[in-house]
C-alpha cells in the first residue's frame, strides 16, 4: 500500500475498536505497518472475553495491509515495554506511537470512590506515560547512534480535559494531565527527533453512543459527522513525516472540523512590586477579572 506513511511502523493503543480501530485502519491504508494493541476490556475497564486487536489485524490484512496484534495492558511496564518490543521485533523499527486506550467510570465527585479515581487516572495518564517512555528510550538510543528519527507521538486528550465535564472528575483530571504530559514530552524529546502532539476528539463509539445518543446518531443520508473515521486523517498526518515542525500542539477534531486549541496564556495582570494584604489581593483579583474574558463553560454545567 502506498501513502503518506509508507515505510513507517505505527503502534496504536486501544486499537481494537472505536477511534483506535479507525486510526489503525487509516494508518494501514496510508502504507504503515501497524501494531494493533488492545487489552479487550469492557467500557468500564473490567475484563472481557474478547480479542478485538486480532479482529482489526484481520481487517487490515484483508485490505492488503500489514499488521500484528498486541494484547498487553499499556498501563503496566511490561505491557508498554512489550508493545514497543513487538514493533521492533516484528518490523525492525518504530516511527509513530498513538496513545489512545482508555475507559470511563463516570460519577459525580461526591460519589466517586478511590478505586474509580485510581482506575481512570491510571489507564489514561499512566497508560500514556509508560508507552511514551519506552518509545522515547528507543528513539533516544537511535538518535545517540546517529540515526535521528522522524518520530511522532499522538496523545489522546478530550474536551473533558480541556474544559472539564460534569460527572467526569477522574477522567477530566487524567485528560488534562495528558495535555501537560504532551507539552513536557514535546519539549524534552525534540532533541531526539520526536514530535509530540495531542488531539481532543469527538466521535460515536461505545464511550459516547449512549450518553450522547441524540448528537451521535448517524444521519439518514449525507455526511456522518460523528463517525470515528473522521478523526483519523489528522492523527495519520500528525503521525507521518509530513507533519515536520508541528509539536506541542493540541487539536480538537470532530466531523469535518479541525481546531487548534489556544491553551492557557496570561490574561490581565498587575504587579505592584510589593506584598498585598488579602483585602488588597481581592480588590486586584476582582479588577483583573473584570478585564478578563469569560471562561468557556464546563461540559454538562447548567
Ligand atoms: N469517543 C469520543 O467521543 C471521545 C471523546 C474524547 C476522548 N476520547 C478518547 O479517545 C480514546 C478512544 O476512545 P473510544 O471512544 O474509541 O473508546 P472505546 O471504548 O471504543 O475504545 C477504547 C479501547 O481501549 C481499550 N483499552 C482499555 N484499557 C486498555 C489497556 N489498559 N490496555 C490496552 N487497551 C485498553 C479497550 O479495550 C477499547 O477497545 C480514549 O482515550 C477516550 O478517552 C473519546
Task: Give the topology, please.
Layout: E1 9-12, H1 18-29, E2 33-37, H2 52-62, E3 66-70, H3 77-91, E4 96-98, H4 114-144, E5 151-156, H5 159-163, H6 169-189, E6 194-201, H7 213-216, H8 232-238, E7 250-254, E8 257-260, H9 278-291
The chain binds nicotinamide-adenine-dinucleotide.
Keywords: Oxidoreductase
Protein name: SDR family oxidoreductase
InterPro entries: KR_dom, NAD(P)-bd_dom_sf, Peroxisomal_Beta-Oxidation, Sc_DH/Rdtase_CS, SDR_fam
CATH class: Alpha Beta
Proportion in β-strands: 5-15%
Number of helices: 9
Mean pLDDT equals 97
CATH fold field value:
Rossmann fold
Secondary-structure arrangement, i.e. CATH architecture:
3-Layer(aba) Sandwich
Protein name: SDR family oxidoreductase
InterPro entries: KR_dom (IPR057326), NAD(P)-bd_dom_sf (IPR036291), Peroxisomal_Beta-Oxidation (IPR051687), Sc_DH/Rdtase_CS (IPR020904), SDR_fam (IPR002347)
Family: Belongs to the short-chain dehydrogenases/reductases (SDR) family.
Keywords: Oxidoreductase
Can you tell me about this structure?
- There is one protein chain.
- With about 300 residues, the chain is α/β, with parallel strands linked by helices.
- The chain has a single domain, classed as 3-Layer(aba) Sandwich (Rossmann fold), CATH 3.40.50.
- The protein has helices at about 20-30, 50-60, 75-90, 115-145, 160-165, 170-190, 215, 230-240, 280-290; strands at about 10, 35, 65-70, 95-100, 150-155, 195-200, 250-255, 255-260.
- Strands 3-2-1-4-5-6-7-8 form an 8-stranded mixed beta sheet, with helices on both faces.
- Helix 1 packs across helix 8 and helix 4 (about 115-145) packs parallel to helix 6.
- The longest helix has about 30 residues, at about 115-145.
- The mean pLDDT is about 95.
- Nicotinamide-adenine-dinucleotide binds near residues 16 and 207.
Amino acid at each position: 500500500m502506498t501513502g503518506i506513511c509508507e515505510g513507517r511502523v505505527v503502534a496504536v493503543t486501544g486499537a481494537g475498536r472505536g477511534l483506535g480501530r479507525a486510526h489503525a485502519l487509516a494508518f494501514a491504508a496510508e502504507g504503515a505497518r501497524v501494531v494493533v494493541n488492545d487489552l479487550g476490556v469492557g467500557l468500564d475497564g473490567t475484563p472481557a472475553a474478547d480479542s478485538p486487536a486480532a479482529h482489526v489485524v484481520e481487517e487490515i490484512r484483508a485490505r492488503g495491509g500489514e499488521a500484528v496484534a498486541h494484547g498487553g495492558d499499556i498501563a503496566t511496564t511490561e505491557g508498554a515495554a512489550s508493545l514497543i518490543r513487538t514493533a521492533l521485533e516484528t518490523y525492525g523499527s518504530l516511527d509513530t506511537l498513538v496513545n489512545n486506550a482508555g475507559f470511563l467510570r463516570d460519577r459525580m465527585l461526591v460519589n466517586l470512590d478511590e478505586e474509580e479515581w485510581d482506575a481512570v487516572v491510571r489507564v489514561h495518564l499512566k497508560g500514556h506515560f509508560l508507552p511514551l517512555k519506552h518509545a522515547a528510550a528507543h528513539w533516544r538510543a537511535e538518535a545517540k547512534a546517529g540515526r535521528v528519527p522522524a518520530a511522532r507521538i499522538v496523545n489522546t486528550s478530550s474536551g473533558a480535559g480541556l474544559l472539564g465535564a460534569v460527572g467526569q472528575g477522574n477522567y477530566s483530571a487524567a485528560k488534562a494531565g495528558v495535555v501537560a504530559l504532551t507539552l513536557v514530552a514535546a519539549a524534552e524529546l525534540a532533541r531526539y527527533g520526536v514530535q509530540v502532539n495531542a488531539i481532543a476528539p469527538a466521535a460515536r463509539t461505545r464511550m459516547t453512543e449512549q450518553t450522547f445518543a441524540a448528537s451521535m446518531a448517524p444521519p439518514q443520508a449525507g455526511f456522518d459527522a460523528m463517525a470515528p473515521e473522521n478523526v483519523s486523517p489528522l492523527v495519520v498526518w500528525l503521525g507521518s513525516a509530513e507533519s515536520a515542525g508541528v509539536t506541542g500542539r493540541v487539536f480538537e477534531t470532530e466531523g469535518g472540523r479541525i481546531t487548534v486549541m489556544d491553551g492557557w496564556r496570561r490574561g490581565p495582570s498587575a504587579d505592584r512590586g510589593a506584598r498585598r494584604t488579602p483585602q488588597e489581593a481581592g480588590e486586584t483579583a476582582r479588577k483583573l477579572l473584570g478585564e478578563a474574558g469569560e471562561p468557556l463553560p464546563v461540559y454538562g454545567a447548567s
